[in-house]
Amino acid sequence: MTGSIAGLERFDSPGKGRGLRVTRPFKVGELLFSSPAYAHVLSLKERGCYCEFCFTRKEGLARCGKCKKAFYCNVKCQKGDWSMHKLECSAMTAFGENWGPSEMSRLMARILAKKKSQKERSASEKILLIGEMQSHVEDVDNERREMNEVDIAALHRFYSKHLEMPDHKDLLTLFSQVACNGFTIEDDELSHMGTAVYPDVALINHSCLPSVIVTYNGTAAEVRAVQDMKPGDEVLISYIDLLYPTEDRNDRLRESYYFTCDCQECKSKSKDGAKLKVRKQSDPIEQEVVSNMMRYARKTIREFRALKHVKTPSELLDVCEHSLEKMGGVFDDSNVYMLHMMYQAMGICIHMQDAGGAVAYGEKILKPYTQLYPPYSLNVASMYLKLGRLYMGLDRHSMGISAFKKAMAIMEVAHGKDHVYLADLRKDMAQK
Q1: Residue 110 above 50 pLDDT?
Q2: Of the four, 71, 86, 228, 326, which is 20 to 30 A from 155 by CA?
Q3: Whether the Cβ atoms of residue 106 and residue 88 lie closer than 8 Å to each other
Q4: Residue 37 confidence (pLDDT)
Q5: Using CA atoms, how far apart are residues 380 and 373, in angstroms rounded to an integer?
Q6: Residue-range definition of the domain harbouring residue 137
């Protein structure tokens, strides 16, 4: 590990390689450890809303006087970020509208700069850990390989002034490592805020029955227990969305992380029946019909991701409604593929400021979410938050307060009782 963390030790996890386990008991909601980011980058779409350095959300952020693109809480945050921001500051001005590296390229530039500065101060253990992070460069598919090549080209184009680039092979390895070990920083509603690397957190292995959850306090990652843990228990998080059935989860794990999970849930598939529930009819639906509809649902979900970038919101909503109508002839409303498209439709309604439509979808989603996700799921908490805010906007205050309280019960475990999200939520509730 990058340092000694009380109550934890690194060990060789059978069949998984390195891992972490606890050396003392931990209760549900207890903080195992907090980890500062080795490197982090704010999403471009969130610029102006969050401080680039500490990820604090506030109004009246101060703009960088040179590039006019980056925003900070104050001079202290601006100075703290300068060693990283200078990688982009002059380039954004020089390239203007042609400046456009991906978020992965931006993060990679910061990792390279951090490694260089740490080596100059005599290499720390974190440098070694970045090197130890899992790499699957030989397993990367053609699409991902092409994306890596585009990102490497962007690194050379936009960052050559401030960085000494490793050779091409080393860059490909580093991109593969960060793809497998990077973390998406999300807000209270699970919206993307930025990307970061946490070498300590990257030691934690996956399970579809996680013992801990990772949340974010500014740019720091916090790891809290969602199960009571005893000495010797392995620290396990979920790398993926746990809503989906076993086959889908393992497809995602193989695609993104190059392994198959063999946790107890993957062996027993105990929730798959509920997740793939079929609509009750007087004549049972034939298995072939169900299988064909599952193939249709998976194909539609894949295609919808691509359509998001080319269709208008109203066109996307039509796609959701059409697929829901077709799947609804076979699947129960609580089937995960129905829930997936309802969730997309809800997001589109929110974007189109159709609060009533969003609430209608959200209310259908909520109960199955509470049954299919593990306890203390952020997906469930974020759904309560979304609905609570929608209810408040529709002047249905008692329902809004009720939804907020249910969100808080989960967030107090996942984020800790003193987190700024909870403080803001309490303040909003008091004002209402």
Answers
A1: yes
A2: 71
A3: yes
A4: 96
A5: 7
A6: 39-184
Q: What are phi and psi of 41, to 5 degrees?
A: -145, 135
Nearest of 53, 54, 73, 52 to residue 62 by alpha carbon: 73
Q: Give the rounded percent of residues in the chain with a pLDDT score beyond 70.
A: 94
- The Cα–Cα gap between 388 and 252 comes to 31
pLDDT given for residue 127 in this prediction:
39
- Write the CATH number for 424: 1.25.40
d(C-alpha 382, C-alpha 375), whole Å: 13
The amino acid sitting at 8 is L
With respect to residue 251, please indicate whether it lies within any of the assigned structural domains: no
Do 146 and 13 have their domain in common?
no
- Verify that 411 and 318 share a domain, yes or no: no
In a domain, 262, yes or no: no
Number of domains composing the chain: 4
Q: Which of 69, 102, 101, 100 is nearest to 85 (CA)?
A: 69
Nearest Cα to Cα of residue 106 among 48, 168, 151: 151
C-alpha span between 20 and 30 (Å, rounded): 16
Q: Which two tokens stand for residue 127?
A: 């440098």
The helix or strand, by DSSP H or E, that contains position 103, with its residue range, turns out to be: helix 103-120
**Helix orientation angle between 313-327 and 336-351, rounded to the nearest 10 degrees:** 160
Place of tokens 């796609």: 319
Q: Which helix (H) or strand (E) holds 79?
A: helix 75-95
Decide if pLDDT at 312 tops 50. Answer: yes
Cα–Cα distance, 379 to 407 (Å, whole number): 10
Residue type, 29: G
CA 417 to chain centre: 21
Q: Where are the alpha helices (DSSP H) in 308-419?
A: 313-327, 336-351, 355-372, 378-393, 397-414
Q: In this structure, is residue 411 part of a structural domain?
A: yes
- The reply to whether 210 and 107 lie within a common domain is no
Whether 264 is covered by a domain: the verdict is no
